[in-house]
Structure formats: C-alpha cells, structure tokens
Design brief:
Helices cover about 30% and strands about 15% of the residues. The protein is of the alpha/beta class. Strands 3-4-2-5-6-1-7 form a seven-stranded parallel β-sheet, sandwiched between helices. Strand 12, helix 13 and strand 13 form a beta-alpha-beta unit.
Length: about 450
C-alpha cells in the first residue's frame, strides 16, 4: 500500500516523499481514510508507529479542501497535548506535512511569554497545537475563538488526566461547538479516557493496531538488579564498559535528575537535563543539543516520556522505574521508533519491586534479568510473575538449639504431635543467692521473713 492509494493530495504526497516516508504504517492505513470521510475516531497505537501523521495528514487535506478561510483569532483545527515537548513535536510534524499548503499553524504552551502567541492568533490559525492550561489563558484574554472549529484532536489524553488537566478539559469542552469531528489518539487508554470518549465522540470508529499498553517489538527490554545506593556507580560503569553512544535516561525526581547530571559532568561526560523546573527555552535547548550530538546523555523526568522524537536513538535507561506503569511504555518508546531497533534497560532496586510487578502485569510478561559482575545487590529484588505477583521467598525453618551434653532441645519448642496441655504460669528465675535452696514459703519475703512485717520488703 502507498500513501497515494489512501487518497491524499499531491502537495501532501510531495512532502512525504521529501521526508522519505515511503509506506504508511498500520495506524495510518486505517486512520487516514476514516478521517477523510469525516468519521470520529478512537485510535490506540503504540508510540513510534506514526500516529501523528495518522491524524495530521487527513486533517490538513480537509482544511485545504473544505470550509471558509480562517477569520481573525479563529481556529479551524485544535490539537490538545499534555506537555510542551509534545506540542513542539506535533507542531513540527504538522509544519513538515503541510509545507506545500497555504495553511497557518501555531504551537501554544506555557513556560514562555503569551504575547507572541496572542499576536500570531490575531490573523487566525488553521491548526493550533496547544496544552490545556495555556489554551484557557488565551481564551480568557479573548485571543482565541472557536466558532470556526471543524476538528478536535486529543493526543495522549490519558497523560493529560494523569497530569491533572481534567478540570481544564471540562472547561474547554463546554466552549467548543457541538458539530465537529473529534479524534482520540494515544498509545495507551485508561478506563477514564474511554469514558471521556463515550461522552465526546459520535459513532466513532475504533482502531487498535497493537495490544493495549504494549511496547514496540523492536525494543529489547531487560533489567539489572542493583542496590539503590550504587545506581549511579553502575550507570557510569555501563556507559563506559558497553560503550554507549547517545543515551536517554529517565529518573523519578527533578533532584535525582540534577544529581545524576552533576556526577556525569564530574566524570567529563557531556550531559544535560530536562524537568519541570527548567524554563521552556532551556528544555528546548537541551533537547536540540542532544539531537545535534553535542550532549551524550540526556537525563529527564517523565515530562519527557512523551513528546521526544529523536531519530535513531539506540538506548533508553530507566535509572528509576516510573510510578505509573503506563509511563514505562512511553519512556521506552523513545527508542525503536519507525521500525528501528533499540534497547531499554532498567536499573531496579529491591524497594521498586512493586513498581516492576505493575509494569510486567501491564506488558503481560516478565522482563529478562541480568546480574552485572561486581554489582550483585545485597538486597535482592524478589522474583515476579507476568500477572504482577511478587514471589516472597519462604522463611527458613530454624532448628531448635540442643544441649551438647544431653542432646535435649533448649528453648520453648512445641511438638505438634504431642497432646495439648494448658499453659501454666512461669516461675521467675531464681537469684544467685537462693540457687539450690528451693522455693520460698507462701507469703515469705526475702530471708524467709513474712512479707509486710518489719525487716521484710513489703513494708
């Protein structure tokens, strides 16, 4: 099958040829004809399979062939994304595919000045790629209008809900016209997203080109057990011993990202960071340096798990496992894209075993383990199963201690085969002074004197 057979216009085919896109992927083969016909769509495809082209190409064609010219401050197609990085990536793809079409596009997101975005919107834009928060800011300042909206795309809707955008999305949906085409594209779909789809979509076509929440088969996945305190040491060892080139590393926290970058730079390794505390220009600069080969290691939080499109990235390392299992799929999806092979390696310590089990339950298989010589952990990572179970090792049975002379067992051991007897009150151990003198008479105090009498303890 070719792109021409899908019914795309010559300007789009020319752009695809210039981008060296030869054959449509499965998601593109199914999505493009349906969108060209005006169908609502619920599409699930693992990351790296070309879903952006799956909705961008037909949308651009419909915009250039249908509807009036865009009015000032108006938007004809709206693509909502969860992060700034994904907004930049999707917008770049839209620009690439539409390079020979007379359409205006814009990416709008927070972390940068809103004024240039407002200025661009004055003339109106055909395609607006935006994050929910910044879009609401623009709407509240009367910088954007939705009367001409023909299509709404929700890209990575599950991630938007994970990041707490539910309220913003509810506000936005009320503002949009009811008569529109709505498309939901994502690598994974939570039940909450499916419920949202039932409310927003009209008789949608459902496409699922891969099992839900699965990773690309071109990515080799494995893990190395390691003690938490030795993760940095192990990563530096692997970077040198395995002669890794460009490597994308995911850490759990912003502090962890900065700490690892500091250790790498102290060893003379070119590294940079992407996390939520960095201004957007600095994040974009770090990404561009990594793409250009100026940086060998890019360390990021899950803010970069979606939206980083790096050509021929060979290696992804999970320095920490993600808290949300679905984010694992998106992290490792940065490698093995567009049919290329890649490797995803996770460094796992004992207190991450529950996170590991959740990931394996999502994938439906157990990740291969490999011990690294010199880094075998003191605190072993318990074995897990493909259904998310953690196998606890049985406690070893301790044999009772025996007296060397008599061979009799010492301590309070119970023979389960013996008849049960009622418990008796234990008699405290004798003091050294009364050893061998027998028990005291009832009511006697120390020295045999009656308790409570002069000279006794009871007074």
């Amino acid at each position: 099958m070719t792109f021409a057979s899908l019914g795309l216009l010559e300007p789009l085919l020319r752009a695809l040829a210039e981008l060296d896109h030869q054959t449509p992927t499965p998601i593109q083969q199914q999505a493009i004809p349906a969108i060209l016909k005006g169908r609502d769509l619920l599409a699930a495809a693992q990351t790296g399979t070309g879903k952006t082209a799956g909705f961008a190409l037909p949308l651009l064609q419909r915009l250039v062939t249908e509807g009036p010219a865009v009015a000032p401050n108006a938007v004809r197609a709206l693509i909502l994304v969860p992060t700034r990085e994904l907004a930049e990536q999707v917008h770049q793809s839209v620009q690439d595919y539409g390079r020979h079409l007379p359409l205006r596009t814009l990416a709008a997101y927070g972390g940068v000045s809103i004024n240039p975005q407002m200025m661009r919107l004055r003339r109106g834009v055909d395609v607006l790629v935006a994050t929910p928060g910044r879009l609401l800011d623009l709407f509240r300042q009367n910088a954007v209008k939705f009367a001409q909206l023909q299509a709404l795309v929700l890209d990575e809707a599950d991630r938007m809900l994970d990041l707490g955008f539910a309220r913003e999305l509810d506000e936005l949906f009320v503002m949009l016209p009811q008569r529109r085409q709505t498309l939901l594209f994502s690598a994974t779909f939570s039940e909450e997203v499916r419920q949202m789809a039932r409310l927003l979509l009209r008789d949608p076509l459902s496409i699922e080109v891969a099992p839900r929440n699965s990773a690309a088969k071109t990515v080799r996945q494995s893990l190395i057990p390691v003690d938490k305190k030795r993760k940095s040491e192990l990563f530096l060892h692997l970077l040198e011993s395995r002669r890794w080139g460009q490597t994308l590393v995911f850490a759990k926290t912003r502090k962890g990202v900065e700490a690892l970058v500091g250790e790498l730079e102290a060893q003379g390794i070119r590294a940079d960071a992407i996390h939520g505390d960095k201004p957007q220009p600095a994040r974009l600069r770090a990404l561009e340096r990594f793409k250009a080969g100026e940086v060998q290691v890019l360390v990021a939080t899950d803010v970069a798990a979606r939206g980083l499109d790096i050509e021929a990235l060979p290696q992804v390392v999970n320095f920490d496992l993600p808290i949300v299992a679905e984010d694992y799929v998106h992290r490792i999806g940065r490698t093995g894209r567009a049919g290329a092979s890649g490797e995803a390696l996770s460094l796992v310590c004992a207190d991450e075993v529950e996170l590991l089990a959740a990931i394996e339950a999502l994938l439906g298989r157990v990740l291969a383990r490999q011990d690294e010589p010199g880094f075998v952990p003191e605190h072993r990572v318990p074995p897990t199963t493909a259904d998310g179970q953690v196998l606890k090792k049985p406690k070893k049975f301790k044999k009772p201690k025996t007296d060397a002379a008599s061979g009799k067992a010492l301590g309070r051991w119970v023979d389960s085969s013996a008849p049960k007897v009622e418990a008796v009150r234990q008699i405290p151990a004798f003091s050294a002074g009364r050893l061998g003198k027998g028990p005291r008479p009832a009511g006697a105090g120390k020295g045999g004197k009656p308790a409570g009498k002069p000279g006794g303890r009871g007074r």
